[in-house]
Specification:
With about 270 residues, the chain is mainly alpha-helical. It is about 65% helix and about 0% strand.
């Protein structure tokens, strides 16, 4: 197994060569090495090298379907997506938050080659929703260590799977509910545009037109009925997070007349908070 420094030096060289796979290197074997370091606190290695290289190699079809499946399985495993789950203010968040970013890459590749089965897609959805439910480390940027941004990254994963035809009405409702449960919280004020990333998922779901408009409106209305506990600053945090989600959704929808019922519901929910 390569050391962290040797992986970093090799990936720096690969980046300089426009992400071409060196002749003497197996892309998959190196990807497996990268997955062992995906949670490093070295922000350059984690974000600018490991993740960026995996992005390019998935886009460039450097992996076989079976290899892509293996990388996805690793990312969804207890040792990656659920590494240290429940912890806060620890470095395990980087393993979780960057493992979840493999999901959009895997979905992108699936759309090109159709390599995932419906059962695998269902499993991916269930693991991702469970992860969002259990993630307690909600930090965005961590000084000296770079982006954790677990909830924003999870939103990217949710958005990618929301586009898949095999996800049905119930699946998409599950995603809307987990978004509401994770954004409308009173213990942490989101300050790094997590609401924008989650709203991207909501807009994707609305655009699919699988969930009836009345049900989507009911979901928006429920955001205006969040339960406050009568304590400060918890109530202000809850209200702030919910308002940001609603406002972000409003500005994604307001310029299209077909969404007038949605924006009217958003305005009503904002007025009741």
């Amino acid at each position: 197994m390569k050391s962290r420094n040797s992986i970093k030096n090799l990936l720096l060289q690969i980046r300089q060569e426009q992400y071409k796979v060196p002749k003497e290197i197996s892309a998959f074997e190196l990807a497996l090495e990268m997955m062992t370091q995906i949670g490093t606190v070295d922000a350059e290695l984690r974000d600018k090298l490991i993740y960026s290289t995996l992005c390019k190699w998935f886009e460039n079809n450097e992996f076989t379907p079976e290899q892509m499946r293996s990388l996805l399985q690793i990312s969804l495993s207890d040792s990656h997506l659920f590494c240290g789950i429940g912890e806060t203010e620890t470095d395990t968040v980087f393993t979780r938050s960057f493992s979840v970013l493999i999901v959009p890459l895997a979905v992108y590749a699936h759309k090109q080659s159709n390599y995932l089965t419906e059962n695998e897609i269902s499993y991916m959805k269930e693991r991702l929703i469970l992860y969002v439910e259990l993630e307690n480390d909600l930090r965005g940027y961590v000084t000296g260590k770079g982006w954790a941004h677990a909830i924003a990254h999870a939103a990217d994963g949710l958005n990618s799977i929301s586009t898949l035809p095999s996800l049905n009405h119930v699946d998409l409702l599950d995603i809307l509910h987990i978004i509401q449960n994770k954004i409308c919280i009173d213990k942490y004020l989101y300050i790094n545009e997590e609401d924008e990333r989650m709203v991207t998922v909501v807009k994707t779901i609305i655009n699919r037109e699988i969930i009836e408009e009345d049900i989507c409106i009911e979901w928006i209305n429920s955001l205006g009925l969040i339960n406050k506990n009568g304590r400060f600053p918890e109530d202000d945090i809850l209200k702030g997070n919910t308002k940001c989600l609603l406002r972000s959704l409003y500005f994604r929808l307001f310029d299209q007349s077909k969404f007038n019922r949605y924006t009217d519901a958003i305005i009503k929910s904002l007025s009741t908070l």
